[in-house]
Amino acid sequence: MGMFRVETRLGGIMSTRRFQTIGLVGRFEDPQVIEPVTSLLGMLREDGREVLVGMPADAVPPTLSQAARVEEQALAGRCDLVIAVGGDGTMLYAVRLVAGHDVPLIGINRGRLGFLTDISPDEMASHLPAILAGRYLAEPRRLLEAEIVRADGTRAGPMVALNDVVLTKHMTGRMLDVITWIDGRYLNTHGGDGLIIATATGSTAYALSCGGPIIQPNVDALVLAPICPHTLSDRPLVLPATSRIETSVEPRFDVRAQVICDGWTLGDLEPGDRLHVRAAASPITLLHPENHDFYEILRSKLHWGRDNRWRRG
User: Which of 30, 80, 88, 307 is catalytic?
Assistant: First the structure.
């Protein structure tokens, strides 16, 4: 096909996309990943696309020799589209690469649960040509931006997160007291193991295991979920996505806290420091097949509607 323009109508707005240069992200040393990546490379090259991989030169497998190597941090600036092959962790890493760039993401699932990577390797041959031809669902996803303002005025961050920003205990069995403000107004002091600030996307991640609600991705909301709260009435709270959230920790003997964004550590939060969390300036865009169904994914991943009463271990 070569280079071409794609015109799709998204929310009543005509959007023009050109997917000539495509970046691949994944743990290429993993045999379960390199197999579909090799097939994907052949498919894209046969279709006339330029393919880039972001990785060190000495880590490029021979099967990817036809792809050009670029530094990972420069990948999004060189691509029209990024395809992440792996689990949701790989997808979250790819999000960090494309944040701040108008580059959409596609996820090929080689992990286990896969709420973000929703195309299986068996479906690549049918779904990817359709997406590259402009038949897809484009879904903007809210990002969070977290920053630690230290007592001495220095700062750590900002760092973005697609799923969640987590304030948690750091190498201690003692309880944290987390003070929380919403838009400058005091909310509560949460006693427990920490606090999760999750997007609608992240509502099916860590926040879900803490009793938080499942929020449909196109609902512009945040979830504030205490981790193992000391008080049972301290329940998850749904907030507008535009909320500005600040937290600090009360001084307690031998208690340390840390801030983690989508699995990456932003830094320690000491008494007197403030964690600021707000919506990032720009969302990222996920591309899905035309038949993408969020409810079907929930049924499949969470095993809804399956009768387990007669199963034996």
Answer: 88
